[in-house]
């Protein structure tokens, strides 16, 4: 059975692989789907296009459907997330200058990985006492695991969000912002941390796996009204993505995936930047052996209805991070989370 043209949005990140590989290797076509992938330049643009129907589905940050349903930063819009496509994949990169300050202020000969944020404390205090500006840190979107992971990393080191200035920058612009000395550090998804290391402008000090470990990262986002109109069509999309994730779970396939993702049409980024995280390596700094992190990028295609309890618990944790970040004032009822996840649909 063929389908009408379907527009699926994505951001140029390694964890868009389930969509890009499904298109390139024919998993969508095998399911009778005519899919056009639409690269977006910011998470806000992707969200807005999904909300108004310009996109039929999208590669979304795990907290985004919750934020959409609650009307955080947008009109309340029922977006469901019936499939978790990936886990982990983010990291925190600090500028060379900031790492030099960390070494000097803490009397270190070198830093170790993963790095504790407590080593920022003397720098923050020194800047405060001398009247200098706060450290400038960045993440990708207000309602993102990146933001909550950055806050958690700081909090674990005794640093409060008020001690630093935090900005939103689109993923592909992070390295340029650091190169221009606009920011001192950022939390972003691969491959942009590796790009900073390859360019010699930053050092990746910790990953999201170090901070949380196997948290949901990207989901397949769909307008609930659109899903309800043609559930069979979206089940075919979900099935094709699941098959793609099984292919991606085989490590030797990851190099082929990196070759495809690096193409101009997709990430438009050199293979040596795209490949490391897909192959279970975290580049930390130039001329240094990478950290071995087999779970850096996990593509699991976690079906909400087959793993309902554990996934709902993950989303309960996400909304607790939203509470901690003062983005919401009350817990989201479990029944509402089940609706967002389209559980038992």
Automatic annotation (TrEMBL):
<keyword id="KW-0997">Cell inner membrane</keyword>
<dbReference type="Pfam" id="PF13379">
    <property type="entry name" value="NMT1_2"/>
</dbReference>
<dbReference type="GO" id="GO:0012505">
    <property type="term" value="C:endomembrane system"/>
</dbReference>
<keyword id="KW-0813">Transport</keyword>
<protein>
    <submittedName>
        <fullName>Uncharacterized protein</fullName>
    </submittedName>
</protein>
<keyword id="KW-1003">Cell membrane</keyword>
<dbReference type="InterPro" id="IPR044527">
    <property type="entry name" value="NrtA/CpmA_ABC-bd_dom"/>
</dbReference>
<keyword id="KW-0472">Membrane</keyword>
């Amino acid at each position: 059975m063929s389908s009408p043209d379907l527009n699926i949005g994505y951001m140029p990140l390694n964890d868009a692989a389930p969509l890009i590989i499904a298109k390139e290797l024919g998993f969508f076509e095998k399911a009778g789907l005519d899919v056009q992938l639409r690269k977006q330049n910011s998470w806000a643009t992707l969200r807005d296009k999904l909300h108004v129907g310009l996109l039929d589905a999208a590669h979304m940050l795990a907290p985004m459907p919750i934020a959409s349903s609650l009307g955080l930063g947008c009109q309340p819009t029922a977006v469901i997330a019936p499939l978790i496509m990936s886990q982990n994949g983010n990291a925190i990169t600090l500028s060379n200058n900031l790492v030099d300050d960390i070494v000097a202020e803490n009397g270190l000969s070198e830093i170790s990985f993963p790095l504790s944020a407590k080593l920022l404390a003397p720098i923050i205090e020194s800047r405060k006492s001398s009247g200098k500006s706060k450290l400038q840190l960045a993440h990708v979107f207000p309602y993102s695991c990146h933001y909550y992971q950055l806050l958690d990393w700081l909090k674990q080191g005794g640093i409060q969000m008020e001690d630093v200035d935090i900005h939103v920058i689109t993923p592909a612009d992070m390295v340029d912002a650091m190169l221009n000395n606009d920011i001192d550090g950022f939390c972003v998804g691969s491959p942009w941390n590796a790009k900073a290391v390859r360019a010699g402008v930053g050092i990746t000090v910790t990953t999201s796996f170090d901070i949380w470990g196997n948290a949901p990262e990207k989901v397949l986002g769909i307008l609930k009204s659109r899903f309800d109109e043609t559930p069979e069509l979206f089940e075919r999309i979900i099935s094709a993505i699941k098959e793609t994730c099984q292919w991606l779970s085989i490590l030797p396939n990851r190099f082929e995936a990196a070759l495809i993702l690096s193409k101009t049409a997709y990430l438009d980024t050199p293979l040596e930047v795209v490949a490391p995280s897909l192959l279970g390596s975290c580049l930390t700094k130039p001329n240094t052996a990478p950290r071995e992190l087999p779970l850096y990028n996990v593509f699991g295609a976690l079906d909400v209805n087959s793993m309902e309890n554990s996934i709902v618990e993950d989303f309960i944790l996400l909304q607790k991070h939203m509470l901690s970040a003062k983005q919401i004032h009350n817990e989201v009822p479990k029944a509402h989370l089940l609706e967002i996840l389209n559980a038992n649909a």
